[in-house]
Amino acid sequence: MGKIVAIANQKGGVGKTTTAINLAACLGKLGRRILLVDVDPQSNASSGVGVDRNENGYGIYECMLGQERVENAIRTLPWENVSLLPAKRNLAGAEIELIGMERREYFLSGCIGTSKDVFDFIFIDCPPSLGLLTVNALTAADSLLMPIQSEYYALEGLGQLLETYNLVRQRLNPLLALEGILLTMADMRTNLSEQVEKEVRTHFGELVFKTVIGRNVRLGEAPGFGKPIIEYDAASAGARAYVRLAREFLERNGIQIPGDGTEKPGENSEGAVEAENAGTAAGGNTHAGQGEGVLDGSAPGAEMMNGKDG
How many CA atoms lie less than 13 Å away from 128 in the CB half-sphere? Predict the structure, then answer.
């Protein structure tokens, strides 16, 4: 029986979709069968793995409303053990349609519940809000993973999300557990990131993942090419961080993976992030030959990153 994990934070830009895509891909590399479910009307998780929200085919909207079977909407992705249940443009109106329906909080649960027999882990990428789609995700999930950016305002948003978590437990899903809190977009060259990490670990202790995801240029480039970081640049600091997170995630779930191999000899995670950030600041490219031309618009997918519409 698989496990459903909702990845949620009502604050946008905290690395939620980045975490959903890259944790899924790294766990796939480690031999786990993964389903990534996109319930964000912005469809960033879908586009981030190369699926166009405007193309024909079924998505999570049709499955939630009972118009199509979930197995007919799932896409097999070109990476080991990873599949996608995509979001399409029609998902934008789903919350309005659900408002007047009975048991409106349980539509997603009824849609993906049977997929637990097929996949080891199902990750739900939630919208940056605490609306009906996020409530549906929390009602369907076995646990909640909360990415938070290493900045002051993130702490305020965390409190609001925990209030919603407690309400869902009380009224809709009493078995919903806290998978953990993940610190993202950290820059350990600054005092602020260190202070935020210290405060979060003081308040939440073992709930906070040991792995910290640092700011990383390659992580920002990868979605423009429709690839997770482990496929775009496996040697980058961002890829190594998400492999460490995948291993820690499995350990928390009682699954031991032998070996590590995510760091170069003599280099810890903070050192890797600092080295790559330093190379970027100096105008260098730590892994030349991959992703070149992204900023000048010459690479595939650069139109999206540069804000062009084709």
Answer: 15
Q: Sign of dihedral through CA atoms 230, 20, 93, 118?
A: positive
Higher pLDDT, 296 or 148: 148
Strands 82-85 and 75-76: antiparallel
**Dist. CA 297–CA 304, nearest whole Å:** 9
93: Cβ contacts below 8 Å, ≥ 6 apart:
none
Per-residue pLDDT at 259: 65
The torsion region of residue 216 among left (phi > 0), alpha (psi -120 to 50) and beta comes to beta
Minimal CA–CA distance to 17: which of 161, 210, 222? 222
Q: How far is CA 36 from CA 109, 118, 285, in A?
A: 15, 13, 31
d(CA 115, CA 286): 40
Summarize pLDDT for 265-284 with one digit per residue, the tens. Answer: 333 434 444 444 444 333 33
- Who's near 281: CB < 8 A, 6+ residues apart? none
DSSP strand E in 235-307: where? none
